[in-house]
Design brief:
By secondary structure, the protein is α/β, with parallel strands linked by helices. It folds into two domains: 136 residues, Rossmann fold (3-Layer(aba) Sandwich); 101 residues, LytTr DNA-binding domain (OB fold (Dihydrolipoamide Acetyltransferase, E2P), Beta Barrel). It is 30% helix and 31% strand. The protein has seven helices and 15 strands. The strands form four sheets. It has a five-stranded parallel β-sheet, sandwiched between helices. A five-stranded antiparallel β-sheet has the order 10-9-8-12-11, with no helix packed on it. A hairpin with a 2-residue loop joins β6 and β7. α2 packs parallel to α3 and α4 packs antiparallel against α6.
């Protein structure tokens, strides 16, 4: 029986390793012949190894996953890897084998693997129309941050932004605070503000950004200052005057 050969293309080392490890669990007989860190390496792996399936990150610096998919079209099955649901749904509905959202979820990856395996005996699809549509979406979309990478001792962990109750400046670093833990990241608060979805995260102080879904209530203290109470944390967060107007309708 012919062994299925795969190439992974993901520019973030942590996620590349995570995807490789998770595929080892859900598809242990899969032969991952190359795990590329950029589009150019992915293209070389496509030509060299002639895989049956490629797991392609859509957005990468330089040559993107869409560029690689253009060359892979009709030659192998493609599973798109993306952090942005709007790209993924378009890919699946337009005929790509499937998609996987980052951060990776074993249950969702297992479903993608099942769909790939069902199509391995069929001719890989031509993706020309899909790639044109996706390229337009990528150019027009404003992608927001969906996770942050944090260091926990010798380990690196991915936190989805949905887990984070608030971000707060801490000297040279930024604290990312969840319901039951916190970690330091190197991204300045200003850069975070530009990357987070404004419908989900509000700056309430020059040093604080809060996740709206983590807010339990907003009240005034004895001095008339607005204070944010959180659902799963005991501390309160002060709202400075320039941001008080955000809560007038709450």
């Amino acid at each position: 029986m012919k062994q299925t050969r795969a190439v992974l293309v993901e520019d973030e080392a942590v996620l590349r390793t995570q995807l490789e490890d998770m595929l080892g669990i859900v598809w242990p007989e899969l032969n991952i012949v190359a795990a590329a860190e950029d589009g150019e390496s992915g293209l070389q792996a496509l030509d060299e190894h002639r895989p049956d399936v490629m797991f392609l990150d859509i957005q990468m610096p330089g040559m993107t996953g869409l560029d690689v998919a253009q060359r892979a079209s009709g030659r192998c099955h493609v599973v798109f890897v993306t952090a942005y649901t709007q790209y993924a749904v378009a890919a699946f509905e337009a005929g790509a084998v499937d998609y996987v959202l980052k951060p990776f979820n074993e249950k969702r990856l297992r479903l993608a693997v099942e769909r790939v395996r069902e199509k391995l005996d069929s001719r890989p699809l031509r993706l020309d129309g899909l790639l044109t549509e996706l390229a337009t979406r990528v150019a027009q979309a404003r992608p927001y941050m969906r996770w942050v990478t944090v260091q926990r001792g010798a380990n690196v962990r991915l936190l989805t932004v949905d887990e984070i109750a608030y971000f707060q400046s801490d000297t040279r670093y930024t604290r990312a605070v969840t319901a039951d833990s916190e970690a330091l990241i190197r991204t300045p608060l200003k850069d975070l503000l530009d990357s987070l979805d404004p419908a989900q995260f509000w700056q309430i102080h020059r040093s604080t950004i809060v996740n709206l879904s983590a807010i339990d209530s907003v009240a005034r203290d004895a001095y008339g200052h607005l204070q944010v109470r959180l659902r799963q944390r005991t501390e309160t967060l002060r709202v400075s005057q320039p941001f008080a107007h955000l809560f007038r309708q709450m």
